[in-house]
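Final report, Chapter 2: Outcomes

The project's central promise was a pipeline that accepts a single protein chain and returns its three-dimensional structure in a standardized token representation, suitable for archiving and comparison. That pipeline is now operational. To close this chapter, we reproduce one record exactly as it appears in the project archive, with the input sequence first and the structure output second.
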Amino acid sequence: MADFSAQEQAIESGALVLPRPDLGTLIVTGGERQSWLAGMLTADIAPLRAGQGAYALAVNKTGRIQAEVWMALDADRVLLGVEKDLLEPLREHLDHYLIMEDAEVAPSEETSSWWLAHGPASEVVVRVAREQGAVASLARLGELDTAIVVAPQDPRFSEALLSAPGAVLATPDGWERVRIARMLPRFGVDFAAGNFPQEATLEHLAVSFNKGCYLGQEAVFMLEKRGHVNKRLVRLAFDGVVPAVAKDSEVRTLEGDVVGAVTSATRVGDRTMAIAMVRYKHTLSGTVLEVAGERAEVSCLATREGEACS
């Protein structure tokens, strides 16, 4: 088990390896599998080739999230990593829009394990995973190089991945600190099915605004270019450690008005950091809010001066 400093170092200069036992697998086959999926998911996947992958969202025609999707392209199929309880709903959602295309979507008949590795050494993790017989793709999650690995169930597989130079296994607590510090919202915790991508602050991680048409594109585009959502995830940074800040803690203005709630919180170094869903007018970087009687500043990694967190 690595300590937190080693995990921070791994994501900066090596690879932080994260097991994802919560993910199940859908397999998409057929000659038009990729072009069809490009019309169903938010990421720009049409240019991808075997060995590449993507992080994407499946949204409905009103632009609301149906599922979070990790995608790995193999030579003759596309593997989709989806929360296990959403496998069948997503299959039905996708199948509903499969009409004349040469494509088929079905649950995997094999039991596989999903792994992600974040950091500049992700390409090495991909190579090691392939040597072990896994499907492994290189992708990007915002500014992070990311390996997406789908492997046969084998208790020794983690040892193989961690043999890659600079690879460190993420602990649950360590990953919580890393993802909150980097403003990486977690599905089922910070956002859920039914949210808009912009509410979950995922438009810069999972949505392309330059690709061709996809289901729900008009709604997502209009929110981005001609309007805004009513609420939005932000990162809150406190001056010190505030143990009372926890999930569902109320977020208030300095005048005492409730404007949102904390979705995740952790200690990062010598201070508490949190992710919170707050009303849009309070999402400007530098805005000071209050949680558990302590002041916190809205502080995001990717902001534009004078504009809401993005």
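Archive annotation: The helical segments are 4-13, 33-38, 87-96, 122-131, 157-161, 172-181, 203-206, 217-226.
This record, like all others produced under the grant, will remain available to the consortium after the project formally closes.
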